[in-house]
Structure of Cartilage intermediate layer protein 1-like:
Amino acid sequence: MCARCRDIDTHYHYYATGDRYNTDHDCSWENGLVCTSDVNGKTCKDYEVNFKCPNIGTCPACAKWTPWMDRDNPSGNGDAEHVGPTGFNPCSGHEPIDIQCRVTGTNQPWDQTGQVIKVKCTSSEGFVCENSDQPSGEFCKDYEVRFLCP
């Protein structure tokens, strides 16, 4: 299952609005999206959250994980593992059910690297780490993704 969070007026994705979100409540299906003025430092925008449940019919075994894919390297602006026209189309025209993201060549999950991540491993958007967001001039690690396809 995945969540899509966006500004209700502009339909910009939540991460593109400039608001800051409460820890562990930044558009996940487990915790949703929480933006408070205490954390944001100003009034938060009005957001809508949509949840997408996987529809794999009566055959859950029919869903398959793709191989791990690494489209981009962290040179330049960072590492972008996008989904859609500018990135992967892993499920033959169907929307992916789920995504997993990790450091390339390891089993280290993306959310345990300590890096600042711009697009946080969603099946609808993919994964993006920007070098300019990292502290002390560090560069993004090289990430890879895989998708659960119906």
In short: The longest helix spans residues 37-40.
